[in-house]
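Technical note accompanying the year-one report. For the benefit of new consortium partners, we illustrate the data format agreed upon in the data management plan: each record pairs a sequence with a structure-token string. No post-processing was applied to the example shown here.
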Amino acid sequence: MDYEAIRGGLELAIPFNRYIGLEIGEVAPGRGTVTLPDREDLRNHVGSQHAGALFGAGEAASGAAFVGAFAERLADLTPLAQSAEIFYKKIAKGAITATGTLGADRDELLAKLDSDGKIEFPVEVELQNAGGDVVATMTVRWHVRQKNA
């Protein structure tokens, strides 16, 4: 699987992510990383990264993890983020890297998808500053169905 080509395509696929300048760093089986740049127009009233921008980075990282896990079947799937919960732990200054990790066994999910035509699962996300401090954690629940189901 050409994950680098998938990464490049994913970076172009979502207009909102381009608007806020998110950079897809990695797409791998069940893992994705996204960097939120340090820009003045993304900051809040106290000079740190805006909560909405952090949320956007986390959701994008969860999507990259999903894409990496199901890359060979993407053409047959309709994925939607079903819900998300974020916990802001620390003031987020500078560029922030969000790392999403599939929160369920991929093979079990594929078997359920084949039998039921749809699945729901979490992707866990950590957002870290350049020093490695976790500034936020997030869980995004995905709902995925087969297009013919």
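Partners are asked to follow this layout when depositing records. Residues 51-70 form the longest helix (20 residues).
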